[in-house]
Specification:
The protein is mostly helical. Helix content is 76%, strand content 0%. The longest helix has 17 residues.
Length: 150
């Protein structure tokens, strides 16, 4: 098997997905494996695989609020990538209930609002984040929205 992270990192996304799938066949209740597979699949634009892995991750993560938040966020990202903004927003808001002070979740919520054309709501959401905690994308969105909302 793999001896180092460097060897794993040298694989392309498809190879990494394949390796994770084979590991998950042997250990289907490995929640973290489903999380990583979902993230890899999202990165590789394999939305059906990302969604199915995120759903399994959510089922396995019921006892951990942090894992449940991460699973709901992944599911929300899948919906957002499919253009299903209402479903994405529903999952992001559920995740925020578990971790209200998470800037990344607020940015995800703002992205869903922007795609729905709800610019004032997106702007208000981003304004609640400490500017030092905003990602580059969050700062760009805030700048874009400031012009629309002021």
């Amino acid at each position: 098997m793999w001896r180092s992270r460097a060897q794993l990192a040298a694989l392309d996304i498809g190879q990494q997905e394949s390796l994770l799938r084979s590991l998950l066949r042997r250990c289907p209740t490995w929640a973290f494996g489903h999380k990583i597979l979902s993230e890899l699949a999202l990165h590789g634009d394999n939305i059906p695989l990302a969604y199915s892995s995120a759903i399994i991750y959510e089922r396995l993560a019921q006892r951990s609020p942090t894992d449940r938040r991460d699973a709901l966020t992944l599911i929300g990202r899948c919906f957002l990538r499919r253009g299903e903004c209402d479903q994405a927003l529903e999952h992001f808001l559920k995740a925020r209930e578990l971790a209200p002070e998470t800037p990344q979740l607020s940015e995800e919520i703002a992205a869903a609002y922007i795609l729905k054309g709800m610019h004032a709501e997106a702007y208000a959401t981003l304004k609640t984040i400490d500017p030092a905690s905003l990602s580059a994308e969050g700062k760009a969105a805030l700048s874009f929205l400031k012009g629309k909302c002021d």
